[in-house]
TrEMBL record:
GO terms for biological process: respiratory electron transport chain. Its cofactor is FAD. It catalyses: (R)-2-hydroxyglutarate + A = 2-oxoglutarate + AH2. One of its GO terms (molecular function) is FAD binding. Gene3D superfamilies: 3.30.465.10, 3.30.70.2190, 3.30.70.2740, Uridine Diphospho-n-acetylenolpyruvylglucosamine Reductase, domain 2, Vanillyl-alcohol Oxidase, Chain A, domain 4. It is an enzyme of class 1 (oxidoreductase). Keywords: FAD, Flavoprotein, Metal-binding, Oxidoreductase, Zinc. Its EC number is 1.1.99.39. Homodimer. This is D-2-hydroxyglutarate dehydrogenase. SUPFAM superfamilies: FAD-binding/transporter-associated domain-like, FAD-linked oxidases, C-terminal domain. Residues 42-221 form the FAD-binding PCMH-type domain.
């Protein structure tokens, strides 16, 4: 374990004057907890954790950091999977935990203004109370914070219908690396006045500045959601099923997972196998069915898929409770495999390329990991696959990660071949940084570096993430 960087008592006193008493932490447990995220690749080594409660306090902290040449790592719910929130270089960790208020609701605009520390599920529940809906959803909704979701452009299980977090951000308040407060776009849908600066901070992983508030668009609530889980014989059957349903029905989700993922969830308890037939792969699809003809059409498509032998078995939800139970087969995967220290790849290509892409990736995996358990799942309806390699008990974490990184080159070169992304929704952080050139051209990276130097000239914002300068 790294030894934490020590700040002088004078500097700690200055920080206390900014955020108030009992709003800084320097004990080892806190440094380890708030200095890390879900990744286990890097040791946290922050100097102090601070908990501002306003945009003005965040500004004062950034000005302090510039004055004393100390870097800042923004921290939200710390659910990230690319080490984007790991403070490993003695940084001040700026936690948004105390900035967790829903500030305003604008019914006519279907918009809510929130602080960055609002938890995803908190926003979803607030939207429900207004008879509205916030559709960006994923397994960590109960702990992820909206500021972090925006900073990584989080995706999740509803992207096929509703898109990424970027689609729902109408405005941002940010504190730049220079210490300026910017109120960007101010919630407007139509604003043709030059550069849309909010989009630089969405997905910017805190490297340009810190998001403190956001204007978020809401949607009408979906009605009578139905879920099907279908067992399929092989990868080749998945995309024809997607096309068959999408040609007749508007899907709100189309998820994919393998038998190993199913088994890990079943072993974890709380859910049962959806049908007796054990299948190599499964798809979960969701759609609105407020009218009986939609249900009739869904059953016709299902029967067609059975006739084509794309589906071996299947189940359709019969109640709200069963909808939730079937979703757990997919949503509980990450938690179920967490004890196996999985090495995660979060990759995407155009949906058109998915069948050929999967075949090539599977060949690479089988030839290089013959003794490893491979857990496939993902949002295959939008071209996003999660490839999880589970650590054998007899390998140390370091040996295991080293083996996985060797094969990364093969996996990511295949991503490059199909003009895909090395990170579909988890961000780049530190874990994907060595491979950024596969998805982004050298010219693009140089432009990104130039933008960082404009917003963050002293390079204090979340150092070591995305790229190095």
């Amino acid at each position: 374990m790294n030894t934490a960087v020590q700040l002088s008592s004078d500097l700690l006193h200055e920080l206390t004057n900014i955020v108030g008493e009992n709003r800084i932490k320097t004990d080892t447990t806190s440094l380890q907890s708030w200095g890390s995220d879900y990744t286990k690749h890097f040791e946290p080594n922050p100097s102090v954790i601070v908990f501002p409660s306003s945009t003005e306090q965040v500004q004062a902290l950034v000005q302090f950091a510039n004055q004393h040449h100390i870097a800042i790592t923004p921290s939200g719910g710390r659910t990230g999977l690319s080490a984007g929130a790991v403070a490993s270089q003695g940084e001040i960790v700026l936690s948004l935990d105390k900035m967790n208020q829903i500030l305003d609701f604008y019914p006519a605009d279907r918009m809510v203004r929130i602080q960055a520390g609002v938890v995803t599920e908190q926003l979803q529940r607030y939207a429900e109370e207004q008879d509205m809906y916030y559709p960006v959803d994923f397994a960590s909704a109960g702990s992820s914070q909206m500021g972090g979701n925006i900073a990584t452009n989080a995706g999740g299980i509803k992207v096929i219908k509703y898109g990424m977090t970027r689609n729902w951000v109408l405005g941002l308040t940010v504190v730049t690396g220079k210490g300026d407060i910017l109120h960007i776009n101010k919630g407007m849908i139509k604003n043709a006045t030059g550069y849309a600066l909010q989009h630089l901070f969405i997905g910017g992983e805190g490297t340009l500045g810190i998001i403190t508030e956001a204007e978020i668009k809401l949607e009408r609530k979906p009605h009578d959601l139905q879920v099907m889980v279908l067992g399929v014989p092989d990868f080749d059957a998945v995309m024809p099923i997607l096309h068959a349903f999408q040609s007749k029905i508007d899907l709100t989700a189309f998820e994919f997972f393998g038998e190993l993922a199913m088994q890990k969830v079943l072993d974890h308890g709380h859910v049962q196998r959806p049908f007796d037939t054990e299948c190599p792969y499964y798809v979960l699809l969701e759609f609105e069915a407020p009218y009986e003809p939609i249900m009739d059409q869904a059953m016709e498509i299902f029967e067609h898929c059975m006739e084509q032998e794309w589906v071996l078995d299947g189940v359709l939800s019969q109640s709200l409770e069963q909808v939730e139970s079937l979703w757990r087969l997919r949503e509980d995967i990450s938690e179920s495999i967490a004890p196996y220290t999985p090495y995660k790849n979060d990759i995407s290509v155009l949906i058109t390329h998915v069948p050929a892409f999967i075949k090539e990736i599977e060949e690479i995996v089988q030839s290089n990991y013959p003794d490893f358990e491979i857990c496939w799942f993902g949002h295959i309806g939008d071209g996003n696959l999660h490839l999880n390699i589970l650590k054998p008990h007899d390998l140390s974490k370091e040996e295991f990660f080293a083996k996985c990184q060797v094969v990364n080159e093969h996996v990511f070169n295949t991503v490059k071949k199909y003009n895909g992304s090395i990170s579909a929704e988890h961000g780049v952080g530190m874990t994907k940084k060595p491979y950024l050139h596969i998805t982004r051209s050298a010219e693009e990276i140089e432009y990104m570096k130039a933008l960082k130097q404009i917003f963050d000239p002293n390079l204090i914002m979340n150092p070591g993430k995305l790229f190095d300068i």
